Amino acid sequence: MRWEPFSNDREFHLSITDAERQGLARIAQRRRWVWYVFIAFVPVVALAALVGGPDALNTVGFAVLALWAVIVALSGFARCPRCANIFSMGNGIANPWRRTCGNCGLALE
Ligand SMILES: [Zn+2]
After folding, report:
1. How many angstroms separate the alpha carbon of residue 101 from the centre of ligand 1?
2. Were both Cys, which of 30, 48, 66, 68 would link to 75 (CB 3.0–4.6 Å)?
3. For 14-61, how does the pLDDT look when each residue is reduced to its tens digit (9 = 90+)?
4. What does the alpha-carbon distance between residue 85 and residue 39 come to, in Å, rounded to a whole number?
5. Where are the domains of the chain?
6. pLDDT category, 2, cuts 50, 70, 90?
7. Which residues have CB less than 5 Å away from ligand 1 (the ion)?
8. What's the DSSP call for residue 99?
9. What is the rounded CA–CA span in Å between residue 92 and residue 86?
């Protein structure tokens, strides 16, 4: 299979290997976890405050934010399974919600 960035060859973009499919699933999973932790932040911290008071609020709030920062970094710096470049980067511009690889155009779905 030839490799040509930003090719308009539809067949090239539609044909992906199992390894590429697994890599794309991993990227999609990391993006889902960004949202899971983001949405869980307020209820988790509120529960910690109710149960443990202000000290627990601070500790749990910082821990959840630190966890979220790690997940955001793992998601944002995920490598493309086809070209091995950072999936969300393209032409020097980072877009963490990009649906296609910014380097080779491999689509998430
Ligand atoms: Zn790529």
Report:
1. 5
2. 30
3. 688 999 999 999 999 999 999 999 999 999 999 999 999 999 999 999
4. 29
5. 17-94
6. low
7. 80, 82-83, 101, 103-104, 106
8. S
9. 11
pLDDT of res. 109: 80
Both tokens assigned to 14: 């539609």
Task: Supply the DSSP string of 42-92, one letter for each residue.
Answer: HHHHHHHHHHHHHHHHHHHHHHHHHHHHHHHHHHHTPBPTTT-SBTTEETT
Residues 46/50/52/53 CA torsion (nearest 10 deg): 90
Distance 12 CA to ligand 1 centre (A): 13
DSSP 8-state symbol, 93: E
User: Over the stretch 73-101, which tens digit does the pLDDT of each residue have?
Assistant: 999 999 999 999 999 999 888 898 899 99
pTM across the whole model:
0.78
